[in-house]
Amino acid sequence: MATDYQQAREALGARLRELRLSCPGGRLTGQQLAHRLGWQGSKVSKLENGKQTASPEDLRAWADATEQPDAYPELAARLAGFESHIRSWRRALANGFKPMNEGLTAEIKRSSEIWVWEEAVVPGLMQTPEYARHVVQRYADLLNVTKGVEDAVRVRAQRQEWLYQPGRKLRVLMWEAALRSLICPPSVLAAQLDRLTGMVGMDTVELGVVPFTASMKIVPANGFWVLDDRLVVAEDWHAELWLDDADNIVLYGKVWKTLRESAVFGAEANTVINSARRALGPR
């Protein structure tokens, strides 16, 4: 894992060097770039040679200083992809939710098909803003994150534009617990369940629900996303893992397919959703 991490850090350094040499205003020397950034020249060298790990702020500053700000989401995604092996949520969110959200948003935008499993929460691409606000706030409270909650809510809402683009497909499996977990007030959960009911018929969405009564062939554990058979994003309490090696992608794909065998779809899925909705009381 350390070897994979170092190789990825060196690859990021090579990409940073490319940006420095392809600056629209003319290629920059390391010293010239360091002067623009107000850094020691040794920092530029260390980052380009994979001797130091860049922070999200370093990457944004680099993209701006090389006159290529549009490169930042790609750089942030690269960083999230290999730092997840060693970073805790606490470190990743030290500067709020925005840096991590930008990396994931970039990966979602380049994806055509996404497979999701969630055992206790409605997936972000299907959340109402109010439901999303409560979910994000729970994590913020747990990890003592004091800024960026509203930014995270807006980003989640903006990501949902992906669902309305041609050629996209979101394949979601949820355990029934996700429909009943009161991580928000009942009225907020009720509105969220109403939204799910309305999404069942969308041509870009396949929604499956695993009822409590279903026979399970595998433990319905941690949530994860598989993006285009090229990246897995899996969550645990201490970290968000980004896995792009072939073996893990195959493993998570197998887990998703196994869970799908226990799911119901269409009218049957709506029945389970409506049962959870009725348990919350009158509309």
TrEMBL record:
It comes from the Bacteria. Signal peptide: none annotated. Gene3D superfamilies: lambda repressor-like DNA-binding domains. InterPro entries: Cro/C1-type_HTH, DUF5753, Lambda_DNA-bd_dom_sf. SMART domains: HTH_XRE. GO terms for molecular function: DNA binding. It holds the Pfam family HTH_31. Residues 16-75 form the HTH cro/C1-type domain. This is Helix-turn-helix domain-containing protein.
